[in-house]
Amino acid sequence: MRSINCLSHLSLIAGLAACVNGDITASGSNFSLSGAGVSYRFHVDPRSGDLISDHFGGPIDDFTDPATISNSGWSTGLDNVGTPGLTNIRREFPDIGRSDFRLPAIHISHANGDTVSAFTYQSHEVVQGKPSLIGLPATFGKEGEVTTLIVRLYDNYSDVSAALSYSVFPEYNAIARSFQITNNGTNNISIERAASFSTDLPNLDLKMLELQGDWSHEANRVIRNVDFGETGFRSTEGYSSHVHNPFFALHDPTTTETTGEAWGFNLVYTGSFAATAERFSHGFVRVLLGLNPLHASIPVGPGRTFQSPEAVAVYSSHGLGGMSRSFHDLYRKHLSRSNHTFETRPILLNSWEGLGANINESSLENLAQETAELGIKLFVMDDGWFGTAPYARTNDTAGLGDWTPNPARFPNGLGPYVDTVDSYSVANSTNDLAFGIWIEPEMVNPNSTLYHEHPEWVMHAGNHVRTLTRTQLVLNLGLPEVQDYIINAISNIIDSANISYIKWDNNRGIHEMSSPAADYAYTLGMYRVMDNLTGSYPEILWEGCASGGGRFDAGILHYYPQSWTSDNTDASDRLTIQLGTSLAYPLSSMACHVSKVPNGLNMRNISIEYRAHVALMCGSFGFELNPSELSDEERSAIPSILSTWEKINPIVISGSFYRIAWPGDTNWPAVQFVSEDTNTAAVFAFQQGAIIKPAAPPLRMQGLNATARYTSNAFNGTLSGNTLMNGGLNLPWKLADYQSMLVWLYKE
Ligand SMILES: *[C@@H]1O[C@H](CO)[C@@H](O)[C@H](O)[C@H]1NC(C)=O
Ligand SMILES: *[C@@H]1O[C@H](CO)[C@@H](O)[C@H](O)[C@H]1NC(C)=O
Ligand SMILES: *[C@@H]1O[C@H](CO)[C@@H](O)[C@H](O)[C@H]1NC(C)=O
Ligand SMILES: *[C@@H]1O[C@H](CO)[C@@H](O)[C@H](O)[C@H]1NC(C)=O
Ligand SMILES: *[C@@H]1O[C@H](CO)[C@@H](O)[C@H](O)[C@H]1NC(C)=O
Ligand SMILES: *[C@@H]1O[C@H](CO)[C@@H](O)[C@H](O)[C@H]1NC(C)=O
Ligand SMILES: *[C@@H]1O[C@H](CO)[C@@H](O)[C@H](O)[C@H]1NC(C)=O
Ligand SMILES: *[C@@H]1O[C@H](CO)[C@@H](O)[C@H](O)[C@H]1NC(C)=O
Ligand SMILES: *[C@@H]1O[C@H](CO)[C@@H](O)[C@H](O)[C@H]1NC(C)=O
Ligand SMILES: *[C@@H]1O[C@H](CO)[C@@H](O)[C@H](O)[C@H]1NC(C)=O
Ligand SMILES: *[C@@H]1O[C@H](CO)[C@@H](O)[C@H](O)[C@H]1NC(C)=O
Ligand SMILES: *[C@@H]1O[C@H](CO)[C@@H](O)[C@H](O)[C@H]1NC(C)=O
């Protein structure tokens, strides 16, 4: 046993005495993980060796007796060592088959056919810092930033060991957990269910908030009661998906954006997943977040180890806003590996709206030239540049998989063409235009050279029909030869031209799988490819995308600093999508563009200022339109949009984010940023519809210094932080639909 005590008590965060140097106390087999505003406690039951959950919430200083439950009925389960029925106990790593009737965190199928497991405590150790997960994305940190407790369990009956890893990031009230299962026996076993995070909360009335949606309709808040039985959701699409995000919050029914308790849970994984809160008859709430059991059945041979993905849990006593800011700061500092994470991202223009797939060198050069003249710094060539006749990518029926420039369109390859683009000087900038491309490397069209050479490389199940979606199939990235093919093909493109940005798209779910475990193997293979390419080309700005926000998850954010938030670029819809996404993910990681009006999806007509304000609240700002179709009014607004970007982007990249009012709750949604040095705040305020009455509520800010005084573009003189936060500003809205304002506050 090693006991590591708090090393310093340096900082006061939100008035709470904070232990900022990492704190795990292992007193015997009583474990306490502490952060600035969180305690996480569990212990080993001395009679049975089971791990018992004690507390996950605000700071506490002692272990206390568990709730009394009358042991009667079927759930008594006294065994030969006198252990009370496990179903009445709050468990930390529930297995299956021994008097616990709830869902397990670990479910193993053994060679003899049974699925009973009996994991009991063996040993533990505390390590400073955080060991990495082999082959999987995870949070990271050095000694002093994070401390890790590893608890080893063993199942004597089936010779399987488990190593649970708990890392506490004290500054962010965050606990990351993952585990390994090692097969110490001589027969194969199969992992049927693996919840990366599992804990049993006491009998509390809780709501579950999750993000539900679909293509162009991502990240809508859904709030349910955590009732008796199971409350939850899952993705079976092979990816994290648009339909549900691998994130949820549990919160008290009275919790708001700024007050009350909230627990956030997020899986650092891009494959199928399942999220469940199970409330049993005694009212305890079991939290489970991990692999989708339908896409598990992962074989583990003798001597082999299964590594679960990591899940991150965050506790906030300052409402959902506090929870989100913990995720944002943790993810920017301790999840995203890219050097671009804390850099401003260049304003870009994407060729898709202007040219579609109908591109050639001369039309692209014209568009690139217009881009540079507008003062935009990065020109992105979208779909349509690759494939060779008869499979040239001139429409979406051919070419995916053949990652070489179409010789009919780029007779000299990409290199000389990109040199031309690079030679355009950007208006009002010392830079020349930079160049980026779009790719979709996990996919293949049957109309491709690759598919004709390697039909066995696609994900398929025996002789079952290989169902097409968008006329394409999914390559099986679980196969090392497929991983190597993609690494080589994309490396060759990058080596051939001066490419500074890559948008990595993925436009369909996985249907026929060779086995349920193929999704886990695929996901690890995809991570290997992303790890390799971002490792080989760290100077490239990589952006994730999956038909919009279909893979906006913490796994991708480990490798890529940003993701495309939605294919829906209507600014009003985007407010809902971006605020929903912000529950778990930082605004600095969102890519958001201004597109033409009327909007191509919903025909809505919104001013360029409003469209820009919505897109400027994201880390990666850009335009997705044809500059030659801009109206005079729109064109003349661009210089001021660019100068606003200069001011706001550094604050979006590294500042703190506050949701003032949600679009679903009010006609006057608003969000706010506070700069990292706290001297500047910026509020994006919106009026959705023109309504005669009632009046707009005062815009009450958050996160300001109560006693400091602020100057602003929105009022003369100064106002105090208290006035702005408790009184608020009444903005002079006009009687018109879709109005927006950007209010700046400068601390005196
Ligand atoms: C663990 O906590 C329990 C409950 O407070 C206490 O009785 C026990 O002595 C503690 N064990 C150790 C080794 O600290
Ligand atoms: C597991 O087996 C070992 C060796 O047989 C024994 O010492 C230990 O008490 C067993 N543990 C449990 C929890 O049964
Ligand atoms: C189980 O196997 C792992 C990996 O070989 C080894 O580190 C561990 O000590 C073994 N555990 C037991 C209890 O044999
Ligand atoms: C374990 O599974 C592998 C792969 O299916 C098989 O080759 C091997 O014979 C199995 N081993 C045992 C001990 O059953
Ligand atoms: C390039 O595309 C444009 C627009 O489709 C077309 O007008 C032009 O003729 C094409 N040029 C070449 C060289 O193919
Ligand atoms: C779509 O692309 C294929 C392959 O390049 C081509 O043969 C076909 O004519 C194209 N279809 C249309 C409608 O342009
Ligand atoms: C292959 O391309 C041809 C020509 O464009 C098209 O008719 C056919 O539907 C395509 N096949 C698939 C599977 O997309
Ligand atoms: C990527 O893979 C290639 C080919 O296997 C290898 O040569 C290279 O070292 C790898 N790069 C990184 C950063 O892993
Ligand atoms: C990224 O940052 C690390 C750490 O600051 C530095 O060592 C490395 O050189 C940087 N890489 C690039 C490509 O800038
Ligand atoms: C460039 O700067 C000049 C002077 O400030 C300004 O008038 C012009 O609108 C700017 N052009 C662009 C494209 O931003
Ligand atoms: C808040 O502002 C006051 C007045 O300017 C200043 O004295 C104080 O240090 C500030 N507090 C913080 C936490 O920055
Ligand atoms: C500030 O005062 C000037 C002069 O009275 C007035 O014209 C202007 O509208 C005021 N600005 C605001 C934002 O209230």
UniProtKB/TrEMBL annotation:
Substrate binds at residues 215, 382-383, 470, 503-507, 545, 567. Residues 49-298 form the Glycosyl hydrolase family 36 N-terminal domain. Belongs to the glycosyl hydrolase. It comes from Aureobasidium subglaciale (strain EXF-2481) (Aureobasidium pullulans var. subglaciale). This is Alpha-galactosidase. Hydrolyzes a variety of simple alpha-D-galactoside as well as more complex molecules such as oligosaccharides and polysaccharides. The active site is at residues 505, 567. It comes from the Eukaryota. It catalyses: Hydrolysis of terminal, non-reducing alpha-D-galactose residues in alpha-D-galactosides, including galactose oligosaccharides, galactomannans and galactolipids. Keywords: Glycosidase, Hydrolase, Signal.
